[in-house]
Design a protein that fits this description.
By secondary structure, the chain is an alpha/beta fold. 45% of the residues lie in helices and 16% in strands. Strands 3-2-1-4-5-7-6 form a seven-stranded mixed β-sheet. Helix 5 links the parallel strand 4 and strand 5.
């Protein structure tokens, strides 16, 4: 082999190795970035499922929204949607004149809800918070909307019973509360909505208590 060619061959191999190394770094960096992005997007959706009570996001149907609004007729004051999802209940209530608030654990849904409220022109009458419902007090709300699952309803019933004022109305969608007797019901199937006036629930509970007077021995 010609000495000149013999010297050129190792140089070409070195350049080829550098190119392969550069491409390898680019591929590794790209794959790592993709995995980080997927983790950032998926974590808010997956982490709620790892909690003791899973509250999945299932968008409210148009009929459900109308049923909720029907239960809010002749009502006023502040409103909260527990597990507000993409904000459609809060936004619909705001369009009816309510000062409406939504609590949602998934930050992506909260940001999207804020965008929708701005797009629909009701952002001044709505607020959305990223928060765990068990860490929030609902004591200053007169109207409460709940999209829950059966596993959480007994504990949530107790929480609302302790926190809300007597003039509060609680509206449950898809699943009723286990102990309260609804004052109003509308819809059918998954669109069923139950309304509970807390003053009636407490009155019934008070009447059912039997108080035995103490007797002196």
């Amino acid at each position: 082999m010609c000495p000149a060619l013999a010297k050129a061959a190792p140089q070409e191999e070195g350049e080829g190795g550098s190119r392969r190394s550069g491409w390898g770094l680019l591929v590794t960096a790209g794959l790592g970035g993709t995995l980080v992005a997927l983790y950032a997007v998926a974590t808010p959706f997956v982490s709620p499922a790892l909690r003791k009570v899973c509250l999945p996001f299932v968008p409210a149907t148009a009929e459900q929204i109308q049923n909720v609004l029907k239960m809010l007729e002749n009502r006023s004051g502040s409103l909260v949607d527990i597990g507000s999802g993409d904000g459609r209940i809060v936004i619909a209530a705001a369009k009816k004149g309510f000062q409406a608030v939504g609590y949602e654990l998934n930050p992506w849904l909260v940001w999207y809800s804020r965008y929708r409220a701005w797009r629909d022109g009701v952002h001044q009458n709505t607020k959305f918070y990223i928060s765990d419902l068990w860490k929030v007090s609902f004591s200053h709300y007169r109207n409460v909307v709940v999209f829950g699952v059966p596993q959480m309803m007994p504990q949530l019933e107790k929480k609302l019973e302790e926190e809300l004022e007597c003039n509060a109305r609680i509206i449950a969608c898809r699943f009723p509360f286990p102990c309260w007797i609804p004052d109003h019901t509308t819809g059918a199937g998954i669109d069923t909505v139950w309304a509970y006036d807390l003053k009636h629930s407490r009155a019934c509970e008070t009447k059912s208590l039997e108080i035995t007077p103490k007797t002196e021995s």
